[in-house]
Design goal:
Layout: H1 4-18, H2 23-26, E1 29-35, E2 41-46, E3 51-56, E4 64-71, E5 74-78, E6 83-91, E7 95-99, E8 104-109
Antiparallel strand pairs: 1-2, 1-8, 2-3, 3-4, 4-5, 5-6, 6-7, 7-8
C-alpha cells in the first residue's frame, strides 16, 4: 500500500508531462499583432528556427529582426536591446492570446 501512492503519482506526473503542448511548432507563421500606429498594423513573422521579424507594412520603419523562445508556457521575444515575455493563454489555428503583468495581447494569424 505504501508504494502504490508514490507509483501512482509518478505515473500521473509522467502522463501530464507527455500531454504538454509544443507551442514552438504552433506559433510559426505570420501574425497581425494589432495597431502600431493609428492607421497601420504591426506584423510578426515567427520562423521555426526561433527568429522573427516585426514590421509595420506601409510605414517608414525598417523591419526589426529578433529571436524568440518558448519555455514552460511563456514566450520570450528578444530584440537587440530589449526582451519581452508573455504567458501564453491560448493558441489555436487563428488566434494567439498572451498576457503579461501589464497587458493582454491578441494576435490574429495571417498565414
Amino acid at each position: 500500500m505504501r508504494t502504490t501512492l508514490p507509483v501512482a503519482l509518478l505515473v500521473l506526473a509522467a502522463f501530464a508531462l507527455s500531454c504538454a503542448r509544443d507551442y514552438q511548432k504552433e506559433v510559426v507563421g505570420k501574425w497581425n499583432a494589432g495597431k502600431a500606429t493609428s492607421e497601420k498594423d504591426m506584423f510578426f513573422t515567427l520562423r521555426g528556427d526561433g527568429t522573427f521579424t516585426a514590421e509595420v507594412v506601409g510605414h517608414d520603419m525598417k523591419p526589426a529582426p529578433g529571436t524568440y523562445r518558448i519555455k514552460k508556457g511563456r514566450i520570450y521575444f528578444t530584440f537587440p536591446k530589449i526582451e519581452m515575455h508573455y504567458k501564453i493563454i491560448s493558441l489555436d489555428e487563428k488566434t494567439l492570446v498572451m498576457s503579461s503583468k501589464y497587458a493582454r495581447l491578441t494576435w490574429r494569424r495571417v498565414e
